[in-house]
Specification:
Layout (H helix, E strand, L loop, with lengths): L9 H5 L11 H9 L5 H5 L5 E4 L14 E15 L5 E8 L4 E7 L3 H5 L5 E11 L2 E5 L2 E4 L7 E4 L10 H15 L10 H6 L5 H9 L4 H33 L11 H8 L6 H15 L5 E6 L5 H14 L3 E5 L3 H15 L3 E3 L7 E3 L2 E4 L5 H12 L5 E4 L13 E7 L6 H8 L9 E6 L5 H7 L4 E5 L10 E5 L1 H17 L3 E5 L7 H17 L7 E4 L5 H13 L4 E4 L12 E6 L7 H8 L10 E5 L5 H12 L3 H12 L1 H8 L15 H17 L7 H10 L2 H8 L2
Parallel strand pairs: 4-6, 9-16, 9-17, 10-14, 10-15, 13-14, 15-16, 18-23, 19-21, 19-22, 20-21, 22-23
Antiparallel strand pairs: 1-8, 2-3, 2-5, 3-4, 5-6, 5-7, 11-12
Helix pairs in contact: 7-8, 8-23, 8-24, 9-11, 10-11, 15-23, 20-21
The structure holds adenosine-5'-diphosphate and magnesium ion (MG).
């Protein structure tokens, strides 16, 4: 890297093999390979896992039995001996001036060779006093070698790779030293750097790897976190803009009075959140590029009303609307709800004497008779149907609209890229219908911004008044479970209904069915004998399923034993109790979604979670559900418990650019990165004025990566 050349870009660093660095022999190279460090860029973005502030370490002399602690000490002696049963015991004694600590290892004789007298080591583990000796059994050990300085980086490593944190630190220092002549390019625009008072990239890379003070470290971290998030947001927003500019949409008429008439006739006032979201959607609909918006709202937050408002906005300007549900049962349910909500409204009709005809909402599903179906299709093609409800079949070939203006999709995860493409052919001439995707599975806003960054997000974060939250209890043990069935019988005696949910066992559809069937038989002949108990699972035919649902809806079944087929959207207001077997097998979001099926009417809803989770996280999940009924709060807890890896994993399975940034800890930076990206791209949609930045984004988020980000 001769001086005189321009400063190093990330792409340059990505082109230099780590093997070129001094001190990389075969053993080190293999270790680096195991850590997936191939280039200098990989090395420099292999950030320390934690830092050791030498002045603030636990002192051996002050530790109490049971403490979880990190101790810095010097190896004083080591000792190995054979135990019975071919086991070996290795003991290493370290000291720090305040006391001595014995590290105990079983079957790790190599530790005696690894930890030799005089060496500085950092150990982390549980401190115990055992027969008068202070000890830690199988601690995590980091070798510090000759690292000096007050703050020492501790790198992610594994004993298997044979690479110590000390070796890694050396290599990083070497890489930074060799880069010094050229320096690092800093493609982030100066205005942005100024606004957030960021240190430059060179300072940041030094500060994250070799900080001299904690303050330097913090400054470095915030800069590098921002860079990661900023790149992702630039890519997402740029793609979104490009799609918007390439396709022309419909500029809907948001002033006409159909929506106002609809709202005026409602028996209740809109919630503040509904008003706000309606305005957000109306603004999108009035623009002449296609809307692509995600509506998040907890179960019962009133999404249907928002969907109806959007559909009427399309209709009042002379367009048609389609509402797409994940299943036929749900489509039918939506149809009943919308017809009810919109009854009495009329639309202009040049063909009629009064110039008006009733607004028409039709269902288009596989259960229609052939003649009915032909009629609906013909009327859609002539715009004698204003709103059509169905499943994916709505956008398939063979369904012709006169002027499809808006598609509302209930439950985003079943709507993929192909469907989105199919929409393009349904619009009027060259314009693409607007799309509103609704989901009752909230994800935290910042995660949504990253995971669904190509969608705009609206949130219904306020429940309609007068709903009492579902009471959730966790029934552990036979006594508590007995009480659960008492409650179910009491509710049924009061004329209410109940759901009993059994988990799906993924590996085997057969076991799954037999487990729900066993439960059904057990309850039917046992705790719930005398009640009318129905059974529903994924293997019954659609007709049978519909018949069972109809019986449950009409009240001729008291208790429905089911798998999660009832998860989405089933709406039986008379159902007040839900019992969930093996609740620890479900995720937080799913449990929350499930319990949302009860307490939809005027009676108090109750949910009982059965299950004995074997892990701490499992217990924490169930406790969270007992404590909170707020879907967004639960989504935060979920993110906390699972880590964002899983959330990102839902959409993005490729290389992940977020190495340092955390969607949990760095929430405000997600927002700031988003707004900075929006601002820059508003002026310069293709980043033509910032070629270095464009190159960096393209390089770091190669096409594959970006594709992942864009998929829904
Ligand atoms: P979601 O689809 O978000 O789960 P729904 O749209 O089914 O919720 O609404 C749940 C219930 O709340 C429905 O019975 C609906 O009529 C009612 N509702 C919706 N908005 C309001 C409001 N602003 N005030 C009172 N009740 C409302
Ligand atoms: Mg529009």
């Amino acid at each position: 890297m001769p001086a005189g050349d321009p400063p190093l870009t990330l792409k340059d660093l990505g082109g230099i093999k780590v093997a070129e660095l001094a001190g990389v022999g075969e053993r080190t190279a293999n270790g680096l390979l195991a850590l997936e460090i191939f280039t200098v860029l990989d090395l420099l973005s292999h950030y320390p896992r934690r830092y050791l502030d030498r002045t603030r370490q636990a002192q051996i002399g002050e530790l109490l039995s049971g403490d979880e602690a990190t101790v810095l000490g010097t190896v004083r002696s080591s000792y190995s001996r054979k135990l019975r049963g071919r086991r070996t015991l290795t003991q290493i004694v370290i000291g720090d001036g305040t006391g001595k600590l014995t590290l105990v290892f079983f079957n790790q004789q190599w530790r005696a060779r690894q930890l030799t007298e005089g060496m500085d080591v950092l150990v982390h583990g549980k401190f115990e006093r055992y027969r008068g000796t202070s000890q830690m059994t199988s601690p995590v050990v980091d070798l510090l070698g000759t690292q000096t300085g007050r703050i020492i980086p501790v790198y992610p490593q594994s004993d298997k790779t044979g690479l110590t944190t000390y070796k890694l630190a050396q290599l990083v220092e070497e890489a930074l030293k060799r880069s010094r002549a050229r320096g690092f390019a800093d493609p982030v625009p100066p205005e942005v750097l100024d606004r957030f008072k960021f240190v430059d990239r060179e300072t940041a890379l030094h500060g994250i790897h070799c900080p001299e003070t904690m303050e330097q470290l913090q400054q470095a971290r915030r800069r590098l976190v921002f860079d990661e998030l900023f790149r992702v947001q630039l890519e997402l927003v740029r793609r979104k803009r490009a799609v918007e500019m390439q396709t022309s949409g419909i500029s809907h008429d948001t002033s006409a009075g159909l929506v106002d008439r609809f709202h005026a006739r409602l028996p209740f006032a809109l919630t503040g959140a509904q008003q706000r979201v309606n305005e957000e959607i109306a603004r999108d609909l009035s623009l002449n590029y296609p809307m692509h918006r995600l509506l998040q709202g907890d179960v019962g937050s009133g999404k249907t009303l928002v969907a109806a408002t959007a559909l009427l906005t399309a209709v009042q300007g002379g367009y048609q609307g389609a509402l797409m549900a994940p299943t036929e049962v749900l489509a039918e349910q939506h149809c009943v709800a919308l017809r009810d909500m919109l009854s009495g409204l009329s639309v202009p009709d040049p063909a009629s004497l009064m110039g008006q005809r009733p607004l028409r909402v039709e269902l288009l599903t596989g259960t229609l008779r052939a003649a009915e179906r032909r009629k609906v299709l013909a009327d859609l093609a002539d715009r004698r149907v204003d709103i059509v409800i169905g499943t994916h079949a709505l956008i398939q070939a063979g369904v012709q609209y006169q002027s499809l203006g808006l598609v509302v999709i209930d439950e985003q995860h079943r709507f993929g890229v192909e469907q989105r493409a199919a929409l393009r052919d349904k619009g009027e001439s060259a314009s693409v219908p607007d799309v509103l995707v609704m989901t009752a599975t909230p994800i935290p806003r910042t995660a949504a911004m990253t995971v669904y960054g190509d969608l705009d997000v609206s949130v219904l974060d306020e429940m309609p008044p007068g709903r009492s939250p579902i009471i959730t209890s966790w029934a552990e043990g036979p006594m508590a479970q007995g009480a659960v069935w008492d409650t179910v019988r009491a509710e049924v005696a009061d004329g209410r209904q109940a759901y009993v949910v059994c988990p799906v066992i993924e590996e085997s559809a057969v076991i799954d069915v037999s487990s729900v069937e066993d439960t059904f038989v057990e309850l039917h002949d046992g705790e719930l004998s005398g009640l009318r108990v129905g059974l529903l699972h994924g293997r019954v035919s659609p007709a049978e399923k519909e018949a069972t649902m109809a019986q449950f809806r009409s009240g001729s079944i008291d208790v429905l034993v089911a798998t999660t087929v009832i998860e989405v959207g089933v709406d039986v207001p008379n159902a007040t109790v839900m019992v969930i077997f093996d609740a620890d097998r479900f995720g937080i979001a799913q449990l929350h979604q499930l319990r949302g099926r009860v307490g939809r009417g005027q009676h108090q809803g109750r949910c009982f979670l059965l299950g004995e989770p074997s892990t701490k996280v499992g217990r924490a999940r169930l406790e969270a559900l007992v404590e909170s009924t707020d879907g967004f709060e639960l989504a935060e807890v979920d993110l906390e418990l699972r880590g964002e890896g899983t959330i990102m994993g839902e959409r993005q399975k490729g290389r992940n650019d977020l190495r340092l940034a955390s969607l949990r800890r760095d929430k405000e930076w997600v927002e700031l990165a988003r707004s900075s990206a929006v601002e820059i791209l508003a002026e310069d949609p293709e980043l033509t004025d910032c070629p270095e930045l464009k190159e960096e984004v393209d390089f770091m988020l190669g096409d594959d990566e970006a594709e992942f980000l864009m998929k829904s």
